[in-house]
Each structure stands twice: as C-alpha cells, then as structure tokens.
Write a structure and sequence with these properties.
It is a single chain. The chain has 24 helices and 5 strands. Strands 1, 2, 3, 4 and 5 form a 5-stranded mixed β-sheet that branches. A hairpin with an 8-residue loop joins β2 and β3.
Length: 639
C-alpha cells in the first residue's frame, strides 16, 4: 500500500498533476474559473471579438524593440534583427514589392515549420468555456536555428511562457496578478539571446515601473528552474545506480546459479466542459473518490492491530516488552523510509534535470528534509512540492500514538474502547469547530456554492482538515478496533435476515456519503450545521460500511468475488487504467530495489532481536524437552 502512494507522487508529476490533493485542487480551480468567468465575462467576451487586444508575439517583440535600454546586448541585437525583418515584410506586403530572404523564410514566415510567429500561442477556441492556456508549439520554436551573416552567434528560438492577468488589468493595479487567482497563459517564441530578466525588465520589473502599462504577471523561460547538476544529483544517481546494479546482478546470479547455490548450501478538457460533466449524478463517484484514501487508512489500522494481537496471543510477554515496542517503531521506519527517501532524493536532485529543455517549470523542492521527518503535512505545508506524500506523513503521525490504544486493548478491552471513544469525540469536535470557525464546505473535493463568510479555504483547508491526522484518525481508529475484533472473534453465528439487513445498511451508508451531496453540485446551498455534520460524520459512516463488509466477508465468508464499477469510460481508460498500470509496473522495480532489499538487510542486522518463527519453534521444543527432563530427574531422585 505504501509503495503505491510513494509512486503516485512521481507519476502524477509526469502527468502534470500537481499536488496536493488532486480532487481538492481540481475542484478549487474549477470554482475559481467559474467565479472569474462571472466577474470578468465582459472582458473575456471582448477578447473574443477583439483578439488584437491581447499581447501576441508581434506586440511583445515591438514593445521590446522600443525599449532597448532595458535589454541585454544579445537580446537587443536579436530583437532588432527580427523586428526589422517583420517591418520590411509588412511594408513589402502593402506595396506589393515584398522580397523574401532566407531569414524571412526560416524564421518569420509560416512557410517552413521553423517560424517564430507561427509557434507562438494565440487565443483559441473555448475561451468562454474556461480555456485559459494557449501554449503554442514548443518544438517548432526550439527548431529555429539560423546562421546570421556577419556574426558568429547563431539566431535561435527560445520558448517563453507568459502569464497574463485574467481580467487584463495592469500589473500595477491592486488585485491583479494574485497568486491564488486563475490567469491566462501564453507560449511565445522569442530569440534565445533574451532571458526572463530581459522580458521582466520591460513588462514587470521587480524594482521600478514597467516600460508601459500591461497585464503581464510572470515570465518563465524554458529551463529557468533547472539548476546545474550539483553534488546531490550525482550522489543520488550514484546510490540508485549502485543499488540497481546490485539488484540486477543478484537477480542474474539467482536465475542462473540459484539452483546450484541452493544445493551447495507504476483529460485534456476545458474547465467548464468538465464542470458540466460533474453535474451528472454518477460523477459523484469521481468527485468523492477521496473516500478511497479513507479506505487505506482503515486497512492500515486494521492490519496493524490484527497482526499485533496475533503475536500477542502467542507470546504476550515478549510482544508487550520494551524491546518489542522499540522494534515496533524501528521496523516501521526501516520498511517505509528507504523507498520514500529515495523518491525525495530523486525528485529533489534528479527529476528537475529530466525537465531540461522542456516547456515545464518545476518549483524546486527546498523542504526535502522536512518531508524526511514526516511532518510536511503540518510544517511549511504551503511550500512542499511532493504534496501527495501527505498521506505517509499523516499515517506515520497516527502510527506514533497507536500504543496508546493497543496497550489498553491488550490489558483490558473496556479501557481500550473508552480511549478510542475519547479520541473519536475529540476528532469529531475538532472537525465541527473548523467548519463553523472557517465556514468551510462539506468536504474538500467538491463544487459548492461558497459561503459568503468562508475564509482561508485555499490556504488552510488542506493542512488543518484534509491532511490532518487529528481529522483522519477517525477511520484509522475504527480500523484498529476491527483488527482487534477479528483476532478475538474468529467465528460467529448471525441470522440471515440480520445479515442481509446489515449489508443493506452498510452499503446504504457508503452510498449516502458518496452520492448524497449531488444537489450541492447543482448549486444547492447547504446550511453550516449540515455541512459540519457531513464533514465530521461522513468518514465514520463510511467506516461502518467498510467494517460490515470486512467482518462479514472474513468471518462468514459471504463472497470472494471482486466488486468494481466504471463510469466516464473515456476518462477511466485514459487516466485511471494507464495510471494504475504504470504505477504498478514501476513500483514493482522500485520496491524490489529499495523496499524489499532493505527489509532483508533489517532481518540480517536486527533479526536477533526478533526471533523468527523457526527459532521460536525450536525454542519451544527445547523448553518442552528441558521441562520433561527435569520432571524425570525429580522422579529418579524420589526413587
């Protein structure tokens, strides 16, 4: 389970899914686009009718040519060259005496597939459907390479991404270019002699005023975020390479010589079109798919207590001893950390190098050491880049406190259930408080009519609600209690009618929390009391359904058939299936190299502190033999 979560971190980055909490982020983005459309619809409509008002490549080049003092020498020279050619072509077109040069053919005109202007992004279709990104053609731009007569430096194209205020307001106006707001993005092809600093000096300088009022917010050049390969890159690649070589070599040796040795001893779509699709009733399965995460928490808690109490029943003294509790934490850290740490190292020092010369801007991961401490869901949550790994941090933090419930359950179950009830009450009360205090919605992955008093939703919801172990622990605790129950109640009799009613009740609860908010998707405003009730009790209700399914399936053997559903076939096939296939494919190799191998090393180095099943059996035989021998000696002495 953990390896799936770890690998989803890197795979979703390759598929341009930016963390944290994809459903929450997607719903929040759609809400922002819809609000921007309502607020600035007149501006967008005018942009459709009067497209030349936008900053296209032609106007950007002209603005830069008119401000050479703000540009570097190379950029000013290249801009002057291309602007002169454009003017000559335009004048020639007016007079009918246009003469095309090689530079015109290969750089300016859309004759060959190597042009600056042709590769620039332009306002396209579906603007009024929320389509805000017009990337242009990256490879066409990068293919521009022309030898200029009279100089040694060649004229090359470079791809820039320009962010423009959603209402085309001047970047000096208060409220424009907000980081949390939606923005227009355009791809523009400019001379490689220019840098982001050159464009920012003209359109949006850090100090001083721009050359003229304009709506440019951010300028990003390809590879701006790619730093030179440093020591971290080479160390990470070297360590991964050594482990990979050892793993491959060990596999080859085992395959060819194992028998001898044995004998010897991992939608493109417009936002409004997606939002329209989300009004469909069955789309609730996708919008509320984050309950699948709660299923993982439930299973984690269940497996933890199920295995622990299985060992406890065999050897109570050893399982509940201080050394066993020390190993309880060490084993968890050693099994979980190597693949996770290797992923952090890969993302921090290697992944950004793979983005070299690609139209992708990646925020550097500066909080890698915080993520290695498993506290990034609380500490500097807004700066973390591997946001999907919040699950590992949240579960690790819950894991640290599990002995507070396990030990009471082992000593006296009633006390354990009281502790669990207190923890559930605290978690539920905290959830209700947060909804009332911030006027937050029912959940984080939902399209909803916003509460006029809602505050800090985009900033704090993920940290305080979605990623918080204090909130997530509800279903984790329920899983722990179910694991304890399964170890103490191996068989049970139940009336068939009660069994059927239980299945109907459990499944109904699960369907209610998944499908029950459909009216809200269509604009129905839910009062804050019911929002708080759903937010605080939906996971408990979902956990009740999971509990019945697992308990009845394991104890009564109701069914071993796999249950599955599909919806939105195209999205399911192109996104879900491909993601799962690649995730499991790559995670197989990643787990073999960095998880299973370190687990074997742990067994070798620390195996003496945790006797194997064979050793325990041998020890029991020896103790039995010693006891029998002592009894025989007593009989002899009496005789």
């Amino acid at each position: 389970m953990h390896r799936i979560v770890v690998w989803l971190v890197v795979f979703l980055h390759f598929t341009n899914a930016e963390p944290p909490n994809l459903l929450l982020q997607g719903a929040e983005y759609l809400r922002k686009v819809e609000m921007a459309m309502k607020e600035h619809s007149h501006v967008w409509e005018r942009a459709v009718l009067d497209k030349e008002n936008l900053l296209d490549a032609r106007k950007i080049i002209e603005a830069m040519e008119q401000n050479p003092q703000r540009l570097s020498k190379e950029c000013s020279e290249d801009i002057g060259l291309i602007y002169k050619a454009i003017i000559e072509l335009e004048l020639g077109a007016l007079t009918g005496n246009a003469t095309l040069t090689d530079f015109d053919r290969q750089v300016i005109l859309p004759i060959y597939d190597f042009t600056v202007l042709d590769s620039a992004g332009r306002i396209g279709p579906a603007l009024l459907r929320g389509h805000l990104y017009f990337p242009g053609h990256f490879s066409e731009c990068k293919a521009v390479d022309f030898e200029v007569e009279g100089r040694t430096r060649r004229f090359k194209g470079e791809y820039f991404r320009i962010h423009i205020d959603v209402a085309f307001r001047d970047n000096s106006v208060n409220g424009s270019c907000e980081k949390t707001a939606v923005i227009f993005k355009f791809g523009v092809c400019l001379p490689a002699g220019c840098t982001s600093a050159d464009l920012n000096a003209v359109f949006n300088p850090e100090l001083g005023e721009p050359a003229f009022p304009n709506p440019v917010c951010i300028v990003q050049r390809t590879n701006d975020d790619i730093v030179p390969m440093d020591a971290g890159f080479y160390v990470t690649v070297s360590v991964m390479g050594v482990i990979a070589v050892i793993g491959i070599a060990a596999g080859v040796v085992d395959y060819f010589f194992g028998e001898i040795a044995e004998k010897a001893g991992v939608t493109n779509g417009n936002p409004f079109d997606i939002a329209k699709m989300l009004h469909d009733f069955l789309s609730e399965f996708i919008q509320n798919a984050y309950f699948a995460v709660d299923s993982f928490f439930f299973m984690s808690g269940l497996l933890l207590t199920f295995i622990w109490f299985k060992n406890y029943q065999k050897n109570p003294a050893a399982t509940n001893s201080p050394i066993s509790w020390v190993m309880f934490y060490i084993h968890r850290i050693i099994r979980l950390s190597p693949p996770f740490y290797m992923m952090i190292a890969f993302y921090t020092w290697v992944l950004k190098q793979l983005y070299f010369d690609l139209p992708i801007n990646m925020t550097p991961l500066e909080t890698w050491w915080i993520e290695m401490l498993y506290v990034h869901n609380w500490w500097q949550n807004d700066k973390t880049c591997m946001g999907i790994s919040w699950y590992l941090a949240s579960e690790m933090q819950m894991f640290l406190f599990t002995p507070l419930l396990i030990i009471p359950l082992a000593i006296k179950p009633v006390i354990g259930f009281i502790v669990a009830a207190i923890a559930l009450i605290i978690s539920t009360a905290a959830n209700i408080f947060l909804v009332y205090y911030y006027h937050w919605p029912t959940n984080g992955a939902y399209l909803f009519p916003p509460d006029p008093e809602m505050k800090d939703y985009g900033q704090d919801y993920a940290m305080l609600m979605y990623d918080s172990p204090l909130i997530r622990c509800q279903i984790y605790i329920m899983g722990m209690l179910v694991g304890w129950f399964l170890q103490h109640k191996k068989t049970m009799r139940i009336n068939p009618l009660i069994n059927l009613a239980g299945w109907m009740f459990g499944l109904s609860l699960m369907l209610c929390v998944v499908l029950g908010l459909h009216d809200q998707s269509n604009g129905f405003y839910i009062p804050i009391f019911w929002r708080a009730m759903y937010s605080s009790l939906s996971r408990i209700a979902f956990g009740v359904g999971l509990t019945w399914i697992i308990v009845m399936s394991l104890i009564l053997g109701q069914s071993t058939d796999q249950v599955f559903f599909t919806t939105f076939l195209e999205a399911f096939i192109t996104r879900v299936v491909s993601t799962i296939a690649v995730t499991f494919l790559v995670s197989t190799f990643w787990s073999a190299l960095f998880e299973i191998s370190f687990g074997k090393i742990q067994m070798i180095l620390l195996g003496g502190l945790r006797p194997s099943a064979g050793e325990k059996k041998q020890k029991n035989v020896e103790e039995s033999w010693t006891s029998t021998q002592s009894k025989e000696d007593v009989k002899v002495e009496r005789l």
